[in-house]
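Objective 1b of the project was to move from sequence-level analysis to a structural picture of ligand recognition. The entry below was assembled by the postdoctoral researcher (A.K.) and checked by the PI before modelling. It contains the amino acid sequence of the target and the SMILES of the bound compound, magnesium ion.
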Amino acid sequence: MSHPPAPSPLMLLSTDFDGTLIEHGNPAPFSPLLVEILNVLRARGVRWAINTGRTLDSLEEGLESFALPVHPDFALTAEREIYRPGAEGRGWVDFGDWNELCARRHRTMFEAAGPALREVTDFVERHTGAEVRYGRHLRGRDGQPELAGLVATDSAEMDRIVAFIDRFKGQIPDFSYQRNAIYLSFCHAAYDKGTTLKALGDMIGLGPEAIFAVGDQENDLPMLTGVHARHTACPANSSEQVKETVRRAGGYVARDSFSAGVIEALRFYCEDLGG
Ligand SMILES: [Mg+2]
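Corresponding predicted holo structure:
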């Protein structure tokens, strides 16, 4: 006996950008079918957030350069900020007072972490080929621009840097970082893609059972454990650690990569999308 497809439980989608929606180096970096599917879901009232380690400026650049013909309802940037589109869909504005509080807590953390971050800078400059990045809006106690993140030359080099940084974890209140392959950015320990997604869900009245999250790298782990999003997935190009986390959360590990993998996952959770 045939039965109608179950209604989709998904009301909020949280998708990573680079390596999940977008395949770098491919002249067709995303599938037009994904755009169609996102439009179908959004017509049903499903909301879509891009949840990325990119800063807002960098995400805007990315959206423009890859010419994604659909705009998200929310931009979750730097693994901690929450924006919604501005008036008439132009630009982005803070969603509630979350970003203000987030910035204040980061300033306090960075002030306390100043001496440790100078040691990290010294280590990185002496012993590695990694590039240091300073925060435009971050200032240490002495008014100098604060170290915001690092870009290593390869993954093994970042492993060595992380081992050095980990000495300071637990010693400085709220000091933490997010790593994405060769990229690392320092942050307040209370903020990651998972806690930021939970905050967005709280603000729009949606709990984990209505939330879907998909990502491919280490900084996506906090939104893929099943806690903040009950429906999790990763494309086939994801790191082993991500696949293992998604499996343990009872989520969906796609056979296909990048946006094709995201389509596969959305079809898995929304039977009525066909496929
Ligand atoms: Mg990614």
